[in-house]
Amino acid sequence: MKKYLLSLFLVFGVCSIYAQTELSEVNFDRIPFKKVRHYIQTQMRQNITCTDDLVPSFTKEIIPDSCSEQICTYELPVAMDEAWRAYTSVKPDKAWNGRKARLAMLVNKIKHTIIYPGDACDKIDTGQVVYLNLRVLKGVTNVGVAFEVINIDEQNKVLEFSYLEGNKSLGKQQLYFEETVQGTTQLKHVSYYKSDSKFRDKYLYPYFHKRFTNEFHRNMVQAIQQQELPENLHLTYQTP
Question: pTM of the prediction?
Answer without folding.
Answer: 0.85
